[in-house]
Amino acid sequence: EVQLVQSGAEVMKPGHSLRISCKGSGYSFTRHWIAWVRQMPGKGLEWMGSIYPGDSDTRYSPSFQGQVTISADESISTAYLQWSSLKASDTAMYYCARLEGMGYCTGGECSTKWFDPWGQGTLVTVSS
Amino acid sequence: QSVLTQPPSASGTPGQRVTISCSGSSSNIGSNTVNWYQQLPGTAPILLIYNNNQRPSGVPDRFSGSKSGTSASLAISGLQSEDEADFYCAAWDDSLNGPVFGGGTKLTVL
């Protein structure tokens, strides 16, 4: 069974650093992109960025570039999302998800990779 | 404000058919396929529809997807109380060079 298991909830103070994790199992970890998605309280889903563990190629949404760092350790099939200085506005649920699909194009339409499966989520609360 | 536009809410009674729309532009839905996700209360999202109209194994055929031009739709027939959830559309955006989501639609089964 393909599974992503995330680290537990965190309560942090502003200005502190944090790294949360996402461990993959049941598939070849190095051959699939892993994405991080933010969901602020009562809000929708936002793509933050993705990493290809096979070569650590990393892409960021412009909204999150410079605000977080995404990394991966293929030896333990784990992806990470980290902050160097948390803000209260970072309070949210964070999900990791595997990106699936071939990304091919045909007839003027390209196939969007899909997120499947998702991790269970990591709640990050930043408060003084 | 989300790149893809969805109605914030939708509702129906058990057994009814409900549709949820997702509107985009030429840089996303107009040139890339659409995926749909269901998020039950208090849980992580799950994949519901991929490549516009494909259902993963285990998803009932009551759920169907379609796309035309720069818009897509999710249809749910034979509505059941357990369908009450938030639904999100998503597509690759060529301008952003990344995936974008709709704002989500909260489905209520009356």
Structure description:
The complex is a heterodimer of chains A (128) and B (110). Helix content of chain A is 0%, strand content 52%. With 128 residues, chain A is mainly beta. In chain A, strands 2, 4, 5, 6, 9, 12 and 13 form a 7-stranded mixed β-sheet that branches. Chain A has a 4-stranded antiparallel β-sheet with strand order 1-3-8-7, with no helix packed on it. The relative contact order of chain A is 0.30. Chain A binds chain B through residues 35, 44-47, 49-50, 59, 61-62, 95, 97, 100-101, 108-121, and chain B through 2, 31-35, 37, 44-47, 50-51, 56, 88, 90-92, 96-104.
Chart the SSEs and their pairings.
The complex is a heterodimer of chains A (128) and B (110).
Chain A: E1 3-6, E2 10-12, E3 18-25, E4 34-39, E5 45-52, E6 57-60, E7 69-73, E8 78-83, E9 92-100, E10 105-106, E11 109-110, E12 114-118, E13 122-126
Parallel strand pairs in A: 2-13
Antiparallel strand pairs in A: 1-3, 3-8, 4-5, 4-9, 5-6, 7-8, 9-12, 9-13, 10-11
Chain B: E1 9-12, E2 18-23, E3 34-39, E4 46-49, E5 63-68, E6 71-76, E7 85-93, E8 98-101, E9 105-109
Parallel strand pairs in B: 1-9
Antiparallel strand pairs in B: 2-6, 3-4, 3-7, 5-6, 7-8, 7-9
Any descriptors?
heterodimer; A: 128 residues; seven-stranded mixed beta sheet; four-stranded antiparallel beta sheet; B: 110 residues; mainly beta; six-stranded mixed beta sheet; three-stranded antiparallel beta sheet; 45% strand; globular
User: What does the overall shape of chain B look like?
Assistant: globular
Instruction: Describe the sheet with the most strands of chain B.
Output: 6 strands, mixed
Counting helices, strands and paired strands, the structural category of chain B is: mainly beta
Radius of gyration of chain A: 15 Å
Can you count the beta strands of chain B?
9
Q: Outline of chain A, from the CA principal axes?
A: globular
What's the mean pLDDT score of chain B? 97
**Main sheet overview of chain A:** 7 strands, mixed
| Series of secondary-structure elements of chain A, N-terminal to C-terminal | EEEEEEEEEEEEE
Low-confidence stretches of chain B: none
How much of the sequence lies in strands of chain A comes to over 45%
| SS strand fraction of chain B | over 45%
- Report the mean per-residue pLDDT of chain A as an integer: 96
